[in-house]
Specification:
single chain; alpha/beta; Metallo-beta-lactamase, Chain A; seven-stranded mixed beta sheet; 5 helices; 14 strands
């Protein structure tokens, strides 16, 4: 399996040939200027919530890929308003699990806010747990540290994508606690450095995780990780 980081919280998974894209925000991210959105294709797009820095390139990528878009009910309604056909939208809700050709995807709680770019209520913000060929991956989305994360420990998570930028989400210190709550040692940092309020000291952050016995990866924009 392969993960490719596109900046902010946008990542793509290659699940043995099935392309799964999460929170597509590329063309408006100054750190992702070298990425050509027209070359990104996805079989599935998952949205954690409707804020602009998580959905800006959804419509363009969906159209060029004929992707299926998965989101919580209210955010899914906004997706349809962007011209995505009903049969290309899967709406579900917290606690629900999709059984898809590449594996299962459970929608889980995130502590944040959610509105769509047109200012409408977007439902709850969410995270996702992917169960794919014996591996479990947690994408936390935009979230504060929350005790709800302790419920995920039972899934024996192999890889967790956690926000570390602070200001709008939990910071690195809270992410270390989150890693303990979910009992996962392999962390990929997301939601940092794109804008001044969420800029981090990478060296200090790496040391923080190392001192806690955790493996933190901060891939460059466009870089891929095999796992």
């Amino acid at each position: 399996m392969k993960l490719t980081y596109y900046g902010q919280s946008c990542v793509s998974f290659d699940f043995n040939g099935t392309k799964v894209l999460i929170d597509p925000f590329i063309s408006y991210n100054p750190l992702a200027s070298a990425i050509d959105v027209s070359e990104i294709h996805a079989d599935y797009i998952f949205l954690s919530h409707g804020h602009q820095d998580h959905v800006a390139d959804m419509a363009a990528i969906q159209k060029q890929s004929d992707s299926t878009v998965c989101a919580i009910v209210e955010t899914a309604a906004w997706v349809r308003k962007q011209g995505v056909a009903d049969d290309k939208v899967i709406e579900y809700n917290i606690g629900g699990t999709l059984n898809l050709p590449f594996g299962k995807v459970k929608m889980v709680y995130a502590a944040h806010t959610n509105s769509t770019p047109d200012g409408q209520y977007g439902g709850f913000p969410v995270g996702y747990v992917f169960f794919v060929e014996g591996k479990t991956i947690y994408f936390a989305g935009d979230t504060a540290l929350t005790m709800e994360m302790k419920l995920l420990e039972r899934y024996q998570i192999d890889l967790a994508l956690l926000p570390i930028g602070g200001h709008y989400t939990m910071d690195a210190e809270d992410a270390v606690i989150a890693a303990d709550f979910i009992n996962c040692k392999h962390i990929v940092g997301i939601h940092y450095d794109s804008f001044p309020p969420i800029t981090i000291d990478k060296e200090a952050t790496m040391h923080l995780f190392e001192n806690a016995g955790l493996n933190l990866e901060l891939p460059k924009v466009g870089e891929s990780i095999e796992f």
